[in-house]
């Protein structure tokens, strides 16, 4: 599967997606200023199967109906948080189908001495 990382995705996530071809927007020499719709079109035209992003607005702004690509949106772009969800990310990528969208909620770690209510 060909996977594209948006500019806001930690590149180290690549290590958890062995067996897939992973490239970044930077490696593609695409402008980091591409609007979401333009990015999705360019990625699909380049033959990517999945776009991984942590831009949480993209899932509400873009309609993937009829698209060949899937979208996986991460709830954070902080490496420590993303790494703790590596299995779920890999599972969502593996189960991605054309036009599907997946959101992976990621709670921020608590500061020492605080509790969730």
Describe this structure in words.
The protein has 117 residues and is of the alpha/beta class. It has one domain (2-104): Rossmann fold. Helices cover 24% and strands 18% of the residues. It contains 4 helices and 5 strands. The termini are far apart.
Task: Provide tags for this entry.
alpha/beta, 117 residues, five-stranded parallel sheet, Rossmann fold
Task: Furnish the topology, listing elements before pairings.
Layout: E1 2-5, E2 21-24, H1 36-45, E3 50-53, H2 58-61, E4 70-74, H3 79-83, H4 86-94, E5 101-104
Parallel strand pairs: 1-2, 1-3, 3-4, 4-5
Strand proportion, as a percent range, falls in 15-25%
The biggest beta sheet reads:
5 strands, parallel
Low-confidence stretches: none
**Number of beta strands:** 5
Secondary-structure element pattern, one letter each: EEHEHEHHE
Strand order of the largest sheet: 2-1-3-4-5
As a whole number of angstroms, the C-alpha radius of gyration is 14 Å
Gross geometry: globular
Task: Please identify the structural class as seen in this structure.
Answer: alpha/beta
| CATH class categorisation | Alpha Beta
As a percent range, the share of helical residues equals 10-25%
CATH topology: Rossmann fold
The whole-number mean of residue pLDDT values reads 89
| Total DSSP helices | 4
CATH architecture: 3-Layer(aba) Sandwich
Number of domains: 1
Q: First CA to last CA: what distance?
A: 40 Å
């Amino acid at each position: 599967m060909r996977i594209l990382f948006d500019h806001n995705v930690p590149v180290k996530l690549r290590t958890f997606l062995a067996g897939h071809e992973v490239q970044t927007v930077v490696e593609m020499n695409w402008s980091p200023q591409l609007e979401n719709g333009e990015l999705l079109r360019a990625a699909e035209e380049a033959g990517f199967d999945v776009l991984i992003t942590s831009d949480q607005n993209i899932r509400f702004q873009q309609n993937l109906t009829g698209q060949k690509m899937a979208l996986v949106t991460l709830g954070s772009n902080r490496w420590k948080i993303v790494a703790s969800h590596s299995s779920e990310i890999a599972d969502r990528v593996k189960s991605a189908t054309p036009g599907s969208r997946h959101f992976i909620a990621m709670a921020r770690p608590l500061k020492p001495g605080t509790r969730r209510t």
